[in-house]
């Protein structure tokens, strides 16, 4: 098997997912550093890299290599993804600035489970999805529309947030 970029790329074009995984392993750290320079949030940098590899797979029939390597294409795609993520973040923050602030509800008792404290420690983007979908009961497509993001992003952020909350609450329970 060819382990150079051209050999791996030939296998990717034929639909070999393991070859794509090998390219991911080879370039993920470099692409993440590139995305991190363009974005402020670590999770956004991870998302930009993931989207770039998804697009590489999706557009594998039309991607043009530079000197036999997909790296320049991936670097450009990560930069585009980063700009899109920043733009959607600005739209989201503008939406929050325009949204009416509900009167705070009185808490009945204390949060003995630590769930609310764990929720406050989540990244802002994940907090918004959890609040709208779980606490307020909106459907995922309604959350997506309200936040101006794709429904798939709502699902992935919600799953990521639930996993973090579950881990934090379990850790807190183990300490108690």
From TrEMBL:
<keyword id="KW-0805">Transcription regulation</keyword>
<keyword id="KW-0238">DNA-binding</keyword>
<dbReference type="Pfam" id="PF04542">
    <property type="entry name" value="Sigma70_r2"/>
</dbReference>
<comment type="similarity">
    <text>Belongs to the sigma-70 factor family. ECF subfamily.</text>
</comment>
<protein>
    <submittedName>
        <fullName>Sigma-70 family RNA polymerase sigma factor</fullName>
    </submittedName>
</protein>
<dbReference type="InterPro" id="IPR036388">
    <property type="entry name" value="WH-like_DNA-bd_sf"/>
</dbReference>
<feature type="domain" description="RNA polymerase sigma-70 region 2">
    <location>
        <begin position="23"/>
        <end position="91"/>
    </location>
</feature>
<dbReference type="InterPro" id="IPR014284">
    <property type="entry name" value="RNA_pol_sigma-70_dom"/>
</dbReference>
<keyword id="KW-0804">Transcription</keyword>
<dbReference type="InterPro" id="IPR013325">
    <property type="entry name" value="RNA_pol_sigma_r2"/>
</dbReference>
<dbReference type="InterPro" id="IPR007627">
    <property type="entry name" value="RNA_pol_sigma70_r2"/>
</dbReference>
<keyword id="KW-0731">Sigma factor</keyword>
<feature type="domain" description="RNA polymerase sigma factor 70 region 4 type 2">
    <location>
        <begin position="115"/>
        <end position="165"/>
    </location>
</feature>
<dbReference type="Pfam" id="PF08281">
    <property type="entry name" value="Sigma70_r4_2"/>
</dbReference>
<dbReference type="InterPro" id="IPR013249">
    <property type="entry name" value="RNA_pol_sigma70_r4_t2"/>
</dbReference>
<dbReference type="InterPro" id="IPR013324">
    <property type="entry name" value="RNA_pol_sigma_r3/r4-like"/>
</dbReference>
<dbReference type="InterPro" id="IPR039425">
    <property type="entry name" value="RNA_pol_sigma-70-like"/>
</dbReference>
């Amino acid at each position: 098997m060819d382990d150079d970029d051209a050999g791996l790329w030939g296998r990717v074009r034929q639909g070999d997912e393991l070859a794509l995984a090998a390219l991911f392993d080879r370039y993920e750290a470099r692409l993440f550093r590139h995305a991190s320079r363009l974005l402020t949030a670590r999770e956004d940098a991870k998302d930009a890299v993931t989207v770039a590899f998804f697009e590489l797979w999706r557009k594998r029939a039309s991607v043009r290599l530079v000197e036999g390597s997909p790296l320049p294409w991936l670097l450009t795609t990560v930069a585009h993804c980063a700009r899109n993520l920043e733009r959607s973040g600005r739209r989201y923050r503008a939406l929050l600035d325009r949204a009416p602030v509900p009167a705070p509800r009185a808490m009945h008792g204390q949060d003995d489970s630590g769930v609310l404290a764990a929720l406050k420690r989540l990244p802002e983007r994940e907090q918004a999805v959890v609040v709208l979908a779980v606490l307020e009961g909106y459907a995922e497509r309604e959350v997506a529309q309200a936040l101006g993001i794709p429904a798939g992003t709502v699902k992935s952020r919600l799953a990521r947030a639930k996993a973090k909350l579950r881990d934090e609450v379990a850790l807190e329970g183990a300490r108690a």
